[in-house]
Amino acid sequence: MKQEVTSVPLSGPYLGEREEELVLEVLRSGRLSLGPTIDRFEELVAERVDAPYAAAVSSGTTGLHLLCIAAGISPGDEVITSPYSFAASANCFLYEGGTPVFADIDARTLNLDPAAVEAAVTERTKAIVAVDIYGYPCELDELRAIADRHGLALIDDSCEAFGAEYRGAPIGSHGTSSVFAFYPNKQLTTGEGGMVVTHSEEEWHLIRSLRNQGRPEPGGWLEHVRLGFNYRLSDIAAALGIGQIERLDEILARRSEAASRYTELLGPVDGLGLPAADDADHRRSWFVYVVLFPDSEARERVVAAFEREGIGYNRYLPSLHLQPYLQERFGFEEGLCPVAEDASSRSLALPFFTGIEAAAQERVAEVLTSAL
Length: 372
Ligand SMILES: *Cc1c(COP(=O)(O)O)cnc(C)c1O
Known about the structure:
Elements: H1 17-29, H2 36-49, E1 53-57, H3 60-70, E2 78-81, H4 88-94, E3 99-102, H5 114-120, E4 125-131, H6 140-150, E5 153-157, E6 165-166, E7 169-170, E8 177-181, E9 194-198, H7 201-211, H8 235-246, H9 248-266, E10 282-283, E11 289-292, H10 296-309, H11 324-330, H12 338-346, E12 347-350, H13 358-371
Parallel strand pairs: 2-3, 2-4, 4-5, 5-8
Antiparallel strand pairs: 1-9, 6-7, 6-10, 8-9, 11-12
The structure holds pyridoxal-5'-phosphate.
Pyridoxal-5'-phosphate binds at residues 59-61, 85-86, 88-89, 131, 157, 159-160, 181, 183, 194.
């Protein structure tokens, strides 16, 4: 008998006995922090994304912050970034006194448009923080070329893109410093957590020191050679991460299958924009499933129906330059990034997680279609 679907959550982690077993092992070992489980998790991530160095941190946000420090961003420096993102990709350099310069996005990929980035470069530009939004790789090579031409640092906020591929190789392998995040709605989770991936041994040592109170590497417990932070990941969290990495292929395959099912169900719906398809250069890792309605009025009609039916949703993503704290401080106005603003007014994340059932997706599609 087909199970009746009553309510569908927006998101949720995918955990099993293996994760429980690994966490229990750490608890019994007594090495809850700065232990061998962290090293093992770092090795597994580095191996998986084909990068030489990885450093675990307490969140995606803290990882991005440390990369901004490593890039030398300081007060007065301009940093070009995407307005169509989560706040952390701008906050990471605001912490260091950087000034955000929002360049508009490409309407197909919803990632930074390299031409807009190039046009935004000034004498004060110090860095570009790119984002692989919704797990779709950004235009890394074009952005790298712009950064090199102007002597800028390039940081890739890959917090939504673990497992994605750009030009046939994993995000993380291309030489650009990246950060992955492991909050429970991400492809893989450690509860809270993140991973900085770098191709520079020097940067790797710096990140390891910064996350650990500025202690030297190697060095003593009460020796501090720079202003550091406690941005460490615990071994308990790392154990969870190891369990998740072990079945990453299964996780990514299930997510990709769920995405295909939505695409099949929603493809025929008139006027509904679906996530950008993969092409020769971009292979998405499915983080969320975000659709674009013809206008915000249509979106709100669907939101009202989801509310009535107990279906999870979120209006991913508001444009950052119009967030109150940034508008108040920098005076950004509507119209600054029309492509991003347009997407923000019409986009909606549907329930999407590794263990989502076909029946739940059918219910979502049914409610969405009849509301339209
Ligand atoms: C999740 C995410 C982050 C980091 O989030 P944390 O909650 O700090 O781990 C950063 N940028 C983007 C685009 C994200 O989606």
